[in-house]
Amino acid sequence: MKYGSETGPRGVLAIASGKGGTGKTTVAVNLAAVLAERGEAVQYLDCDVEEPNGHIFLKPAIERVEEVGIPVPVIDKTKCTACGQCAEACEYNAIVVLKTALVFPELCHGCGGCRLVCPAGAIQERPRTIGVVETGHAGKIGFIQGRLNVGEPMSPPLIRAVKRAKANGGVTILDAPPGISCPVVATVCDADYVALVTEPTPFGLNDLRLAVELIRPLKRRFGVVINRAGIGNNAIRSFCRAESIPVLAEIPDDRRAAEAYSRGELMNAIPGFRNALDQLEARIMSEFPEEARA
Amino acid sequence: MKEVVVISGKGGTGKTSVTAAFAALAGKSVLADCDVDAADLHLLLQPRVRRREEFRSGHEAVIRQADCTACGVCLEHCRFEAIRPAENGITFRVEAVACEGCGVCVRVCPVQAIDFPERVGGEWYVSDTRCGPMVHARLTPGGENSGKLVARIREEARGLAHTRSLNLVLVDGPPGIGCPVIASVTGASLVLIVTESTLSGLHDLGRVLDLTRHFKIPAMVCVNKWDINPSITGDIERQAVHRGARIAGRIRYDRAVTTAQLEGKTLWNWALRERNLMCARYGPRF
Description:
The structure holds two protein chains of two kinds.
Chain A: E1 7-9, E2 11-16, H1 24-37, E3 42-46, H2 54-58, E4 61-75, H3 85-89, E5 95-97, E6 101-103, H4 113-117, E7 123-138, E8 141-148, H5 156-164, E9 171-175, H6 182-188, E10 193-198, H7 202-215, E11 221-229, H8 235-242, E12 247-252, H9 255-262, H10 271-285, E13 290-292
Helix pairs in contact in A: 1-10, 5-6
Chain B: E1 2-7, H1 15-26, E2 30-33, H2 41-45, E3 48-59, E4 62-63, H3 73-77, E5 83-85, E6 92-94, H4 104-108, E7 114-115, E8 118-129, E9 132-139, H5 146-163, E10 168-172, H6 179-185, E11 190-196, H7 199-214, E12 219-224, H8 230-242, E13 246-251, H9 256-262, H10 267-282
Parallel strand pairs in B: 1-10, 1-11, 2-9, 2-10, 11-12, 12-13
Antiparallel strand pairs in B: 3-8, 4-7, 5-6, 8-9
Helix pairs in contact in B: 5-6, 7-8
């Protein structure tokens, strides 16, 4: 797409990986910058709400901060008969009943089951804050991040809130948390395309296999980005060939890139890095349909 | 018995390489891989599995299509967006990865068309390694309740330390600060935070140190690849001390870490072999 064109790509791209520290954020923020530079409408959503790092590189101006809560039960002791039905209904052991029902809010998933079963109408729900969603801009890039409160175990409700905050249209880049469990599912489950970032080492390969096992049943289109190409062996390429998974780009290992990353800088000025990113951008945008520009 | 848990906040800073090197240095200890999302310690310690157990991670709702009347009451009550239209476009089904196993739909269904079987969320193993017994797991991709699996692994590891009279449990922890991390650190003797000399490492260290303080667990900090940015390494160490942690040391950036991993060796074993090779070539004074 070029400036002045009537249409631009539209879609949601999730950047994920089984293993941590393979370069998800690096790819996500630099790709967002490349798209913005070309005049495309782009939003960056940091869904790694436990350790959000995209802001370090994009340096956004935050315009709005919203608290996100999950509904937890509050027991009206004057009505509670200590019948124990709420505790029995709770699958998360978040309620025990002694003389009255006691709630352990940090174990509560906010399903509302206890309130449904309470025969005395003694349970009301109040939101308990688990974190914030911050919205703003980094130049032309729309920026949204979630920040989980420290000590809070459950991130998926906050990740879903981050995704609800996105504007329609254009390209949306989701920076996923590492791993293969529920926070990753909450991030990638409805993406149009998933890029799995890995590195050519035994750890990288092992965790890529797991990530592929996660993505396939979700029926998402996906491909692999090999970061730090050259540090290890060829096993990732062989795996991708055997599994018919496209290798979207290979980012060469470069100490200058590591140093720029350490300082919180974008790396688009580093030639080898830029080439790989241009290739990745072209490859992924070809997967997305065109829409009329706003 | 002492239990040392290695965590990092930011992923990919070198937790597993450090844990494996400690395992080799300690000689005999109990090892626990609590990074159940992306378990890698087995790649360096080559465990022989002695025991294998299913991990039951609660329940999951399943709608019997033949009995569903498409009334939509479950859809109305599910707060996890797990009720989806079935393929026939008429009845409903439960999206397994979105289901949190709360059982609300099972209760509200007016025709009892929803089953609630136990969910097998992975497997955990007790194995032998050259460095002592190891407890590790494999979470089903997309699985729930990784914190519960972590708690199960630690419990088993502490039990093994007791029965085999070993006084050290080494835990390779997960990244982040959420559920599996909290399950990994609560009640531990010491947390070692392996971070890296980057602004991201510095930022994430702050949050993970807030977490260890919140749970009142003594913490030490080690900066990996410290020479990538010596000035940030200084900032990290100052911040660590400021937040009440002690400094454990620095590790320089060295390709040997990757080489050792490619050979499936711990850093310590790899270094010993290199030394022996050098001695064989140049004499024992090397």
